[in-house]
């Protein structure tokens, strides 16, 4: 297939009737819209609740006032322009503000709004910062979608990172295998790049984002296989989204299909309280129940994902629940002392985020090889 055509205006989507285009104009004036003809071909236009449509086509629920644009407080951890350093061994490079399509529930939709300048085209400062911080062993290249860059430009960035002795893992966060697998299939220089730089002691990871089983087409599966054959390790991340993957059977099917093609389920994220995301959000405790039920029919290889909230204070795992209590664990934190700490809260079925829990029953921390408990 030739490179698919991209669209940024609803008037170009002929499957939408005139009434829908007019009704959704206010949404696209607030939040950017972008899609390509390949991804549009996955939509069942006879189904108004089609999950692929819900991922990419604006809906008026996005105008509900809720949340904030930087829900995970990424600005606090921005050390130089385009680089975030929140967790000890990992830094994030934001290298583009363009994607193959704009997911309506994107937690970084601020990057696609005029007035926000967080992405760097010149990575000089970021590379210098990484060189100066020897604790950084993992670098995530993201944005936007790095596979929207030319392979030549991407290779220059990968080369600079690979030359830094203490950098052992380079990750590329991308939804292009789902949005446009032909970006991979029709560019032999991309797998050649991976083959060149994913070595025995320094691996390249491709962090895919498949949100629904129907995104796993023959073309996207072949794209994943091409990346694996080149030497990349594939891990998949997805938020749990209302109307897309919020039933256990759909999520279980996604996990199983990912394991079949060698794309390990990695993180399932609680939908962040980002501006415009109320229509996609699911209460924390419902999310936990969906996630747990989805794992029942999965093999061990398919159930490796962790259920995570990317909170301003760290990655908080939703670890368990009883009739009265819910349990959280800091999977990762900017504060090394916080990592692994376990928290017990009274349940709140109306909670959408960690901040909605107020009644702390107990907190347990590992200190000096001993488990200590504190109660409020």
Written account of the structure:
The chain has 376 residues and is an alpha/beta fold. The chain is 26% helix and 24% strand. The chain is built from twelve helices and 16 strands. The strands form two sheets. The chain has a 14-stranded mixed beta sheet. Helix 6 packs parallel to helix 9, helix 9 runs parallel beside helix 10 and helix 11 crosses helix 12. The longest helix is centred in the last third of the chain and has 14 residues. The mean pLDDT is 95.
Give a nutshell description of this structure.
The protein is an alpha/beta fold. The chain contains twelve helices and 16 strands. A 14-stranded mixed β-sheet has the order 3-4-5-6-7-8-9-10-11-12-13-14-15-16. It has a two-stranded antiparallel ribbon with strand order 1-2.
**Shape, per Cα inertia axes:** globular
Structural class assignment: alpha/beta
Gap between N and C termini: 61 Å
User: What is the arithmetic mean of pLDDT?
Assistant: 95
pLDDT below 50 for ≥5 consecutive residues: which ranges?
A: none
Q: Major beta sheet, specifics?
A: 14 strands, mixed
Radius of gyration, rounded?
21 Å
Secondary structure: helix percent? 25-40%
**How many beta-strand segments?**
16
Q: Would you list the SSEs in sequence order as H and E?
A: EHHEHHEEEHEHEHHHEHEHEHEEEEEE
Number of helices: 12
Strand order, sheet with most strands: 3-4-5-6-7-8-9-10-11-12-13-14-15-16
Amount of beta strand: 15-25%
Protein name: KamA family radical SAM protein
Organism: Candidatus Methanogaster sp
